[in-house]
Each structure stands twice: as C-alpha cells, then as structure tokens.
UniProtKB/TrEMBL annotation, chain A:
Record domain Globin: where: 3-147
Species of origin: Astatotilapia calliptera (Eastern happy)
PROSITE patterns membership: GLOBIN
Superkingdom classification of source: Eukaryota
Alphabetized UniProt keyword annotations: Heme, Iron, Metal-binding, Oxygen transport, Transport
Protein known as: Globin domain-containing protein
Automatic annotation (TrEMBL), chain B:
UniProt record similarity statement: Belongs to the globin family.
The protein's name in its UniProt record: Globin domain-containing protein
GO cellular component, one term: blood microparticle
InterPro entries (alphabetical): Globin, Globin-like_sf, Globin/Proto, Hemoglobin_a-typ, Hemoglobin_oxygen_transport
Organism expressing this protein natively: Astatotilapia calliptera
Oligomeric form and interacting partners: Heterotetramer of two alpha chains and two beta chains.
Length: 147, 143
C-alpha cells in the first residue's frame, strides 16, 4: 500500500481543487487521442475521429473525458484505498473493455501535462513530483486486476 | 514513427515561438526531472546542488536546449547531426536511454507550461514525435 505524508495529501487535494472537470476533462481526452492515435482503437462508437479538428469537436470525446476525471475524484478522496476503490473499474477495463494498461500511463502523462498547462508555475517542481506519485498510484490501481 | 513534412514544419514554427525562453525551459525541465524522478540524480552526483534553483541545473538545462535547438535546424538528418553527442552519451556518460523519455516528458510539460496557448495537441503530437526521434538518434551509437 502506498504511504502518503500530510504534505502529499494536501498537495494533491490543492491541485485537484484548482481543476474544473468540465473544462479540463474534454481537453485531456482530446489530447490523448491526438498525441497517441492508437488509443482510438477503443472508441469505434465515437463517430468521427479522423482529423484533429473532428476530435476537438467530438461531443463523445468531451463527455468521456469528463467521466474519467469524475472517476479520478474517487482516487483523490480515497488515497489510502486506491486498489480497492478501483478494483471493479480495473476488472472492467481488463475483461470487458480489453484496454492495454499501458494506455493508463499515456493518459496519466496527458493529465499531468494538461494540468501543468493550466496551473503553469503554480505547479512547482515539488508539487509535480507529488502529483506524479499520486497518478502513478492510480495507474497501478487501474492495472491491479490485470491477471 | 518518423517525422512527416508537416511534423518538421510544426516543430520549426513552434521552436521559433519559444526561442526567447528555451534556456529557461531547459533549466526548469531538468530541475523538474531531478525532483520528480530522483533516479536521474545518479547521473549528476558530481554536482553540489541538484535542486530546481541550482545554477548548475539551470546552466545544464540551457545547454541541453541549445543542442535540441541545433537538432531542430538539422531536422532532416538527426542521426548525422547528433553523431558526436551520441558517442558522448554512449561511451563517456553512459546514460541509460530510457532516461531520454523521462527528460522528454519534462521538456514537454515545461513547453506547455510556458506556452499553453501555442502548445496545442497538434503541436504536442509533433514535438513528442520529434523528441522520440531525437532520443533514437542519440542512442544510435550505444550498441
């Protein structure tokens, strides 16, 4: 189980409080699909993802991004129980959705980069390090049922 | 994932925009890498100060960005133009090439931080590909 100091807990929460899920969620998902286009394999039902413009305008992409960030909120509020919190979601992504867990790492990077673009120098190097420890734990929890 | 003509244009145009801040971005990125990925400190044990505010870190970050800028100007032949640097990293510094990806992540993060409006997903894509190709060229002489 990952151990968190008081500073780490408060840093993660402070960063999360500055994030508008509606605004950032859609941006993050579009970024993943554009920068790592092979991730489109999971979204055949999303319609037009053929151009960057189409991806940026796609309502399903935006909605999915918001949904994923809402799920991330659970991790922020359950930092001591991430594996248990995400066990069902992990199983779903493995058994039903058949998502390569490496995609979680790509998504984590895009989340961090989008947050950095939003917060700019307000995300200090130390805060970035703490956030990345947090998001790595989320990735581990999401990968935990892949066996 | 080789660079298309479009990728090269996007990278060159973005680099022209960030030119006034490349030294600062480099220093910031290196400092963040050393902070968020402590395993990378093993390559800089000879420095007295590895914090993000260290003069040594800022100077070296600027050096790295200058070399990357040079690579941008020679984007059509990355392997050739990085040959000497590849030998340096392979035989003298012996940096595990896995770390090039870690530095690239922090460079991208800082570019986005300093130029959020310009670092669109489209630019992010081309820059990500460019840094990957750069890393490959830098690893050329390893084995």
């Amino acid at each position: 189980m990952v151990k968190w100091t008081e500073l780490e807990r408060s840093t993660v929460k402070a960063i999360w409080e500055k994030i508008d899920i509606d605004e950032i969620g859609s941006q993050i998902w579009a970024r993943v699909l554009i920068v790592y286009p092979w991730t489109e394999r999971y979204f055949g039902s999303f319609g037009d993802l053929f151009t960057i413009t189409a991806i940026l305008k796609n309502d399903k992409v935006a909605a999915h991004g918001r949904m994923v960030l809402t799920a991330l909120d659970k991790a922020v509020n359950n930092m001591d129980n991430m594996k248990r919190t995400y066990a069902d979601l992990s199983r779903l992504h493995f058994q039903k959705l058949e998502v390569d867990p490496d995609s979680f790492r790509l998504l984590a990077d895009c989340i961090t980069i989008t947050i950095a673009c939003k917060l700019k120098s307000a995300l200090s190097p130390q805060s970035q390090a703490i956030w990345q420890k947090f998001i790595s734990a989320v990735v581990d929890a999401m990968s935990s049922q892949y066996r | 994932m080789s660079l298309s003509g479009k990728d090269k244009t996007v990278v060159k145009n973005f680099w022209a925009k960030v030119a006034p801040k490349t030294a600062e971005i480099g220093g910031e990125a290196l400092g963040r890498m050393l902070t968020a990925y402590p395993q990378t400190k093993t390559y800089f044990a000879h420095w007295s100060d590895l914090s993000p505010s260290s003069a040594q870190v800022k100077k070296h970050g600027a050096t790295i960005m200058a070399a990357i800028g040079d690579a941008v100007s020679k984007i059509d032949d990355l392997t050739g133009s990085l040959s000497a640097l590849s030998e340096l990293h392979a035989f003298k510094l012996r940096v595990d090439p896995a770390n090039f990806r870690i530095l690239a992540h922090n460079l991208i993060l800082c570019m986005g931080m300093f130029f959020p409006a310009d670092f669109t997903p489209e630019v992010h894509l081309s820059v990500d590909k460019f840094l990957q190709n750069l890393a490959l060229a830098l690893s050329e002489k390893y084995r």
